[in-house]
Design a protein that fits this description.
The chain is 34% helix and 14% strand. With 798 residues, the chain is an alpha/beta fold. Among the domains are: 144 residues, Rossmann fold (3-Layer(aba) Sandwich), CATH 3.40.50; 155 residues, P-loop containing nucleotide triphosphate hydrolases (Rossmann fold, 3-Layer(aba) Sandwich), CATH 3.40.50; 79 residues, Helicase, Ruva Protein, domain 3 (Orthogonal Bundle), CATH 1.10.8; 69 residues, Arc Repressor Mutant, subunit A (Orthogonal Bundle), CATH 1.10.10; 67 residues. The longest helix is centred in the first third of the chain and has 18 residues.
């Protein structure tokens, strides 16, 4: 039974197991319960399994009510148990209640209720154990189906979603059978920080279950559509989400619009467009109502009411600030980690809440800042708030910035504001560590203070617009500083003015200049006076003259579209931590190797002319090597095997790469090896068993037909992810199929009987007994002999 709750926190269990213990407890049910647990599914199973009386217990009824879905195991004697029948009636009755239907019988005849529940459940499609080759296959199928139903693409809403459910109910009330005979557009508008995105996520979780196969949440559109290519990426994501296909390339916006016009009218879809701020975005992603199938729902969040009129929204829902009661509760969760203030802080809390004006963002930020502080510190904050006008939200938020304990945390915050929003957290941490900051602790502190957000799904750093603008205003100063006196420059007109007029000074620590749609030529002399420059981003910029003018303090050099065929000797920067030259014109990285002992990240992705990797001899501390989509790359230098600290090697879509150097298999530190899309790569060596730290191996869309048998001896990989042509998933699920492929390959060369040795700790590594798992994928084992260190020798029939 599917849920209809707006908040995942309302569930205690993912699944309720209904079964007759005497029939199934010792065998199938226990195996299923264990398999569900290994997949992260929190299932309820009545462990006592004793019928303690005529009536079903109140605790069991509560377990049914607090479970997202129910799974009923109908065994031969299931209907002979009154307890089971009452449990089934409660289970099915709860399903009916959630769909606002009524289960017949009411308070009347108990037998009639049993009969109706049995009749109803018999009409549902289920899993017939007789149609599966083995119990193992049945278990796997059930677990996958439950995972799909339980997960259902839910989004994280908020740690403490105070007041969200009431907002969602108001939105849900806009839906009716009459309105859903056509496509429906709902607009959420209001000021920044008021909670539009949070409510949209909760609404998406609530309604999205009825659009299981066709729904999409496009987040932060304003931030993610600054260039035309960004809008193309959003179109690709939308098409992929709605049509349920792998992402495919769209050449331009107009082609994307045409595809959406052709496909969307035939699919009832649920789409959320978050933070829209221009008509161009609307035109590219949801043109008009004629694009959508009747019954589709489109939700748009925006600060601009006029945009909702342009798109002819059916409902324009203004997001109001929180009332006093909700504000105090949300503030308390962040300031005291409980629903209400501590007794000594009640009046102080009410005063702080009053100054926040019901704005969730301000309540969270100030609450987190005041957590575990003394009364004197609270009073100091209040005195500052009293001097700030009610409409100056940024000034109130700045109190949390001022309260950071040292300049390191403040500098990390300001660097993220200008350069690392939507960047990978580990990537930013490496670079900021290289700048002399303790970034791991610093970023954690900023997250705890609600000054920075962290998206666990994609590992990227995020920041609310108000906080970002507050940080940038701090850099600009009050009164506003001259451009050359600001520590960081990011606004394109400002950067261009400083560089063109050669007015840079030693105050400048970071610059970002992005010119993807025009040729921009800058004289390198413009950087001569910037002796403290740490962070430099030049996007599609031609830098003329002597590169020695660049500061030797550089830690991050991000230069998409680097124009030269090789990196010149004059660009030698011994302190660089990260080189990011995506979409470069490089043929050769360096003509002669450069000693870069600090370099930990080297990214040369999407460089169409790059023919070979650099010599890695002088890059002893390299941790991440990313050469994705380098279609001319043919040679990986053998010195790659000397990299003792390398964690990631990404060679995805290097379509001319035929062979890997044997030395690559010596990389004991590598955790992730990506070879997907290397269509000419036809084998991996058995030496791969030396890569003992590897947890992810992606090699789909390659020419590999024989999989190294030694893979199954990699302990770390057993709990990780593997993909090969035709195989993809968790290693413990894929390994049996890899063994089968190895057996098949041996058969073709005439080796019978086939012997495959697998080193394994115990049967449970597969998630179920090895014997049954192998039998389930077609390996009929005659004998299994336990060998030294827990390995198995499997002798297969022809």
């Amino acid at each position: 039974m599917a849920s209809s709750s707006s908040s995942s926190s309302s569930w205690t269990y993912d699944l309720f197991l209904s079964f007759r213990g005497e029939d199934t407890r010792a065998g199938f049910t226990s195996e299923l319960y264990s398999a569900l647990g290994r997949s992260g599914i929190h299932a309820f199973m009545d462990d006592e399994g004793v019928e303690r009386g005529e009536e079903i217990s109140a605790s069991l009824l509560q377990a049914i009510e607090r479970s997202r879905i129910a799974l009923v195991i109908l065994s031969p004697d299931y209907a002979s148990s009154r307890w089971c029948l009452d449990e089934l009636t409660g289970t099915y009755g709860e399903a009916m209640k959630r769909h606002e239907l009524r289960l017949g019988g009411g308070g009347g005849c108990r037998v009639l209720r049993w009969r109706q529940a049995l009749t109803e459940i018999s009409n549902l499609s289920g899993f017939d154990s007789g149609t599966f080759r083995s119990e193992v296959e049945l278990l796997d199928t059930i677990v996958k189906d439950v995972l799909e139903k339980v997960d259902a693409g839910q989004l994280f809403v908020a740690e403490r979603p105070v007041g969200i459910e009431s907002q969602v109910r108001k939105l849900t009330s806009k839906l009716s059978k009459k309105t859903l005979t056509k496509a429906l557009i709902i607009g959420l508008w209001g000021m920044g920080g008021v909670g539009k995105t949070t409510v949209a996520k909760a609404f998406y979780n609530t309604i999205g279950r009825t659009f299981r196969r066709a729904r999409s949440f496009l987040a932060q559109i304003r931030e993610n559509s600054k260039h035309s290519n960004d809008l193309v990426n959003l179109q690709e994501q939308l098409i992929s989400d709605i049509i349920n296909t792998e992402v495919f390339k769209i050449p331009n916006i107009d082609r994307g619009i045409k595809i959406l016009q052709e496909r969307l009218p035939h699919i009832k879809a649920f789409i959320v467009l978050d933070d829209v701020d221009s008509v161009n975005q609307l035109n590219a992603l949801c043109g008009s109502l004629e694009w959508f199938c009747p019954g589709s729902i489109i939700v748009i969040t925006t600060r601009d009411l006029h945009l909702l009129s342009v798109i002819r929204a059916d409902h324009k829902y203004k997001m109001e600030t929180m009332n006093e009661i909700e504000s105090l509760e949300l503030f308390s969760w962040h300031a005291f980690k409980q629903k209400a203030p501590l007794e000594n802080f009640i009046e102080l809390s009410k005063n702080v809440v009053a100054y926040c004006g019901g704005l969730p963002l301000a309540l969270e930020v100030l609450g987190s800042y005041l957590f575990d502080r003394e009364i004197e510190e609270w009073e100091d904050v209040l005195s500052k708030l009293e001097r700030i006008p009610n409409d100056e939200i940024q000034a109130k938020l700045k109190i949390s910035f001022d309260g950071l304990k040292d300049d390191m945390e403040k500098n990390i915050f300001l660097d993220i504001c200008c350069f690392f929003i939507n960047k990978d957290r580990n990537y930013a941490t490496h670079i900021l560590n290289g700048c002399g900051f303790n970034a791991k602790i610093g970023i954690t502190t900023l997250i705890e203070r609600c000054l920075v957000n962290f998206n666990r799904k994609n590992n990227k750093l995020e920041m609310h617009d108000l906080l970002r603008d507050m940080g940038r205003e701090i850099i600009c100063g009050s009164p506003r500083k001259d451009l050359e006196d600001r520590s960081r420059l990011w606004f394109q007109e400002d950067v261009t003015e400083v560089l063109m007029q050669n007015t840079g000074t030693k105050v400048i620590e970071g610059i970002s200049l992005k010119k993807p749609h025009e040729v921009c030529e800058i004289d390198a002399k413009a950087f001569k006076a910037m002796r403290k420059l740490r962070l430099l981003q030049l996007e599609y910029v031609n830098l003329e003259g002597d590169y020695r003018h660049l500061s030797n303090k550089l830690r991050w050099l991000c230069w998409p579209g680097f124009p030269l065929k090789s990196i010149p000797d004059s660009l030698y920067q011994k302190n660089l931590v990260a080189i990011d030259f995506k979409y470069s014109n490089l043929r050769l990285v360096w003509k002669k190797p450069q000693l870069l002992q600090c370099l930990t990240i080297l990214i040369l992705s999407h460089s169409p002319y790059l023919r070979q990797t650099p010599d890695f001899t002088n890059l002893p501390n390299l941790e991440k090597l990313v050469l994705k989509d380098c279609p001319s790359l043919k040679i990986v230098h053998q010195s790659i095997g000397d990299l003792k600290k390398i964690i990631l090697v990404n060679l995805e879509d290097c379509k001319c790469l035929r062979v890997l150097p044997r030395s690559i298999y010596k990389l004991k530190s590598v955790k992730t090896l990506i070879l997907s899309g290397c269509s000419l790569l036809d084998h991996l060596e058995e030496d791969i068993e030396q890569m003992e730290s590897m947890t992810v191996l992606e090699a789909d869309n390659t020419a590999i037909t024989v999989v190294p048998k030694s893979l199954v001896r990699l302990e770390a990989l057993k709990h990780g992810y593997v993909s090969f042509p035709g195989l993809k998933g968790r290693a413990q699920d894929v390994f049996p199929s890899l063994i089968w492929l190895s057996c098949q390959a041996s058969r073709y060369v005439g080796g019978m009987p086939i012997t495959v040795s697998i080193q394994w700790r115990n049967d449970e590594t597969f998630g179920c007994p090895v014997w049954d798992k192998l039998r389930g994928i077609g390996i009929h084992a005659k004998h299994i002999t336990v060998l030294i260190r827990g390995s198995f020798c499997i002798i297969c029939r022809s």
